[in-house]
Design brief:
The protein has helices at about 1-15, 25-30, 60-75, 75-95, 135-205, 210-245, 270-275, 275-300, 315-320, 345-410, 415-450; strands at about 100-105, 120-130, 305-315, 325-335. By secondary structure, the chain is an alpha+beta fold. The chain has a 4-stranded antiparallel sheet.
Length: about 475
Amino acid sequence: MKALTGAFLLVVVTGCALLPEPSGEDVREQALGHVTIPPNWSAQAIATQVDEGWLASFNDPVLTQLVHEAIEHNPDLLMAAARVEQANAQVDLAESKLKPAIGLIGRAGSKPIADLVPVLSGVMLRLSWEIDLWGRLRYGRNAARASRDAFSADYRYAQQSLAASVARAWFLVIETRQQAMLADEMAASAQRLADFSEQRKRVGPGTEGEVAIARANLATYQDARQQIELANRQALRALELLLGRYPGATLQAGRALPAFPAPVPAGIPMDALDRRPDMVAAQRRVAAAFDLVGEAKASMLPSLSLSGGYARISNAAVSTRDDLEQTTNTINATVIAPLYMGGALTGQVRLRTAEQREAIADYARRALIALDEVEDALTAERVLAERERLLREAAQANRTATDLEQTAYRVGKSDLRAVNQRQLATWAAETALLSVQRERLSRRVDLHLALGGNFATTAQVVPDAGEAPATH
């Protein structure tokens, strides 16, 4: 009998052991068991460990300052931080269900009625505790913890995505400013040609047609300058919104794009799935779904609750009857065994099981997208580098050809139409070169983000799991 009593107490105190959550390797096997992941990237890459602190590789102090300003004030990131705090609170709520609840009840009454109980006065200390026999409450707590971990990883990925967005926006601001400077240069050249065509007309060789063509060409460049100015202001406002500033297009842009950094170590495909915060979040959501299945299954089993109390009744009330004690103790145990609930419990198990399958499928979807983002960024590195080389050569050749055509026009060996065509070709080549240079930098940022590299250049700015991020 003592052995049975001891065994019962052991079950009451410890409860049933929980099934372990699926590890990252287990989740990958379930989600990507049909996918053959190569040991190295198909695009050419350096297969060494991914560098941290990619923001410093651009050697742009203003960009670094803007990123950290966005981390402090961006509303979307502040919302993500609040979601982490909410998830931490959910963990506290889930853990509280595993602990006894203690309360104090006070009562006073003086109305003389036939029944004595309503007029009893006193204080009761009450304790209630649901014994987690089958792990239902612990599964719920573990699900809350896994969800908390997922939100924390989401916050880290939101930080990295925000840093990448600020960098891309900053590069676009610089590009549009350089395009505006190029348009000013082309408009100044067109103005000189217009003035020269009018001089030619006054001295004899020129014609009204040449003057009209020169004036039309000048207006084209001036109109392009206005369009570029609009694009620049839009880019500035977009960046200011990321920073949490008023979108007044007042931010001072850099005059030149940063030099392109050295090649990036890309590691191996499997490492990217373990390193990227969004993949960590997806894995932890699978774990949370697993725990919720366990919670639903445990809800089908009986529950045991204990309650107790200690009360002290006032002397005035006790003195009215001889059979009332001044103090009283109570201990109760309640067992609830679900017999029939119209299929609600089995339906809950099916629901949670389907949610777990959905979480696994979502992990597979995200993993394939993540791998594709790295492959695409690596391919873009090679293609854009070659494009920049070709466009640089084309821009230089067009500039030379334009200079020669303008000289020929001034000495009367060419007409204005040929000069205008050469100018347009030069402008197109210069604009395309600027665009590719900016795109190369943006794609480099995409590669860092896809690989899961951290942008931080200062002390740790990412909250640990279970620690609410500072919202400042």
